[in-house]
Amino acid sequence: MVNQFILFLNLGGGEVVLILFVILLLFGGKGIPNIARGLGKGIREFKDAANGIQKDIQQSTGGLTSQITEHIQEVKKEIEKD
User: Within 10 A of 57 (CB to CB), how many other CB atoms are there?
Assistant: First the structure.
């Protein structure tokens, strides 16, 4: 996944090394793990929120989905009768 992201930005190896070097200079060796940890927590919270929204949508449309499935099967039965 990281390789796809780097390809998306059209960055070469030299550019990636330069970016990592600048990050190391700005935040230091001790600050990078904290940044990575915070980024990981943020991504996890975003995924949890997205999953929660998806579950809410599925629950709210659950009855509708079963009704549509029943109607489709009724129509199939009527078509097979003819």
Answer: 10
Q: Return d(Cα 5, Cα 29) in angstroms, integer.
A: 24
Q: How many CA atoms lie within 13 A of 44 on its CB side?
A: 6
Whole-model pTM: value is 0.52
Tell me if 71 sits within 8 A of 78, measured CB to CB: no
Domains of the chain by start residue, with CATH: 2-61 (1.20.5)
Give the span between the Cα atoms of 24 and 62, in whole angstroms.
50
| pLDDT one-digit tens code per residue, 58-78 | 888 877 877 888 899 999 998
